[in-house]
Design goal:
Blueprint: H1 14-23, E1 39-41, E2 52-53, E3 73-78, E4 85-86, E5 97-100, E6 106-111, E7 114-119, E8 124-130, E9 134-140, E10 146-152, E11 157-162, E12 168-173, H2 175-178, E13 189-195, E14 200-208, E15 214-222, E16 228-232, E17 245-247, E18 254-258, E19 269-274, E20 280-286, E21 302-304, E22 310-314, E23 320-324, E24 351-353, E25 356-367, E26 372-382, E27 398-403, E28 409-414, E29 423-424, E30 430-435, E31 448-453, H3 460-463, E32 464-469, E33 473-479, E34 485-490, E35 492-493, E36 499-500, E37 504-508
Parallel strand pairs: 4-35
Antiparallel strand pairs: 1-28, 2-3, 3-37, 5-6, 6-7, 7-8, 9-10, 10-11, 11-12, 13-14, 14-15, 15-16, 17-18, 18-19, 19-20, 21-22, 22-23, 24-25, 25-26, 26-27, 27-28, 29-30, 30-31, 31-32, 33-34, 34-37, 35-36
Length: 509
């Protein structure tokens, strides 16, 4: 992939800043700013109006929202009190979910047991309801008629609801398949809901630690109205974790993986490709990365292109793979087009520093175009647990672009804080990265939203459209095809004991 020499234009001039602040388009605690990260070439209320407030809108004329020189706060909606995040801890305790309808008109937000659907254009609440458990994932059907929701609870329900009224159409209790526990951590959880044209595919599971680590997982296909089509395995469970599932747009090629995120069962990860009837098409096994790990797992690092032709896998330990579906003839017959056997600086591999071996976790992967794949790295962790982390891994909390043809890194973009995923618009043009805590340095200046145009040429800074800073940390986000971002901010407790930010939905354009 060629690298562009075009520099990023500053997000706004002084005049634009004065206009936005004076007109009320940005609140005093939020300001958009130009990117402070660098690019390296090669190398979880009451009535609907209770929490609402909105900024006035600048005159956009005929200019599309993604062409504006700076973002502005279009609307904010308070989501209720939550305990502040601790800046010194790792993953966020708040696991809020957020999803747009395909047309960008409505957005669904799940926070704890509370589910809210909002009309973005009208700036009003469509409906609210409380589920039985904490909402773990959401997805609208492709036609926008249904909202699918999953929870972590004693029952582990999957719900199908009318997207406009909130009426429950059906529910499915996964605890009947997976078992359950008294400890919330060990209860069944709906990890991932992904929708195809006329189907919904779901990955669900649970784990327990007594007397030793145990895992149980299942994969499901439903119609959008919640009618069960099939489940895998048909009897019993996978005794491994299935944290992610993805599908081609037509639903005819579905991929998921089994693995062991506990790093205790001494097993590899297996990628499965199945058809719409649940029949095996092909599978591929990834062995553990020894001597550092005895097991392999894929967290959210599995993605298939819309047409089903390409699949990428990104293991938690940092290895990345590419598969051309046409070459995967049957179980074990195909092979990865590329992966890194000898780790280089452009791969998130374990590195020995000051007597300790550290690595940055493989968080997420997305096939952006026919020629580019994005990988998202996480926080720095010790390869041998427990162990020391003397310093941050060079590629901690970064977006890494790889060339499809060679597998080599084209550029990297440092986010500065933990990011929960790479979220694309329905047309696959725009992507948003929600940036949260920097646990390594405690720096709060990176919190916010980064919006990119994947069709722009060049590196990360060249593709960056705008950046919107927040005082709290952003734990989840979604982006529409007109580049309107919906994100969830949560408050943060600083090392000083002070709390900054608040729990709210923000709509940024």
């Amino acid at each position: 992939m060629k690298k562009s020499n075009v520099a990023l234009i500053p997000v706004f001039t002084l005049i634009t800043l004065i206009f936005l602040v004076c007109s009320g388009c940005v609140s005093s605690d939020i300001i958009s700013s130009e990117s402070v990260s660098s690019d390296n070439a090669s190398s979880d209320e009451d009535d609907g109006s209770a929490g609402e407030s909105s900024g006035s809108e600048p005159n956009q004329g005929n200019t599309a929202s993604y062409e504006k020189s700076s973002p502005y706060l279009y609307w904010e909606y308070e989501l209720g009190d939550v305990a502040p995040e601790n800046i010194s801890e790792g993953r966020s305790n708040v696991q809020d979910c957020i999803k747009y309808t395909a047309d960008g008109k409505y957005v669904a937000v799940g926070t704890g047991k509370n589910l809210t659907v909002l009309d973005v254009t009208g700036k009003n609440v469509l409906w609210k309801k409380t589920l039985k458990g904490n909402i773990s994932d959401l997805s609208f059907s492709k036609d926008g008629k249904y909202l699918l929701a999953g929870e972590r609870s004693t029952d582990g329900y999957i719900y199908s609801m009318d997207a406009i009224t909130g009426e429950e159409i059906s529910s499915y209790r996964t605890a009947d398949d997976l078992g359950t526990g008294t400890n919330p951590r060990n209860q069944p959880c709906i990890y991932r809901i992904t929708t195809a044209d006329d189907a919904v595919y779901i990955a669900a599971g649970r784990y327990w630690k007594d007397p030793g680590y145990g895992l149980a997982s299942r994969v499901y296909r439903f119609s959008p109205d919640g009618t069960l089509s099939w489940k895998l395995p048909a009897a019993g469970n996978y005794d491994l974790s299935v944290n992610w599932i993805d599908s081609s747009q037509d639903g005819k090629n579905v991929v998921f993986s089994t693995g062991d995120w506990t790093n205790s069962l001494e097993t590899g990860a297996v990628i499965y490709s199945i058809d719409k009837n649940g029949n095996l098409r092909w599978k591929y096994e990834i062995p553990p990365l020894r001597p550092y790990f005895v097991s392999t797992a894929i967290w959210h690092g599995l993605d298939i292109s819309d047409d089903g032709s390409m699949i990428t896998a990104y293991t938690g330990d940092g290895r990345n793979y590419l598969f051309y579906d046409s070459e995967m003839r049957g179980p074990g017959d195909g092979k990865s087009e590329w992966h890194f056997e000898k780790y280089q600086s452009n791969v998130t591999a374990p590195e020995e520093l000051e007597g300790s071996v550290i690595y940055t976790y493989g968080e997420n992967a997305k096939i952006a175009t026919e020629s580019e794949i994005f990988y998202l790295t996480g926080a720095t962790l010790p390869a041998y647990y427990p162990g020391n982390v003397p310093m941050a891994h060079p590629l901690e909390n970064s977006l890494v672009s790889c060339d499809v043809e060679t597998g080599e890194t084209s550029w990297t973009y440092s986010l500065g804080g933990r990011c929960t995923g790479i979220f694309f618009s329905p047309d696959m043009r725009f992507l948003v990265l929600p940036v949260g805590k920097d646990t390594s340095s405690g720096n709060t200046q990176f919190h916010g939203i980064h919006a990119f145009d994947s069709r722009k040429s060049g590196n990360g800074n060249s593709k960056l459209l705008w950046k919107f800073n927040t005082e709290g940390v952003v734990v989840n986000a979604a982006i529409s095809s007109d580049c309107t971002v919906a994100a969830v901010e949560v408050p943060l407790k600083l090392k000083s004991g002070d709390v900054t930010g608040k729990h709210r939905l923000i709509i940024v354009r």
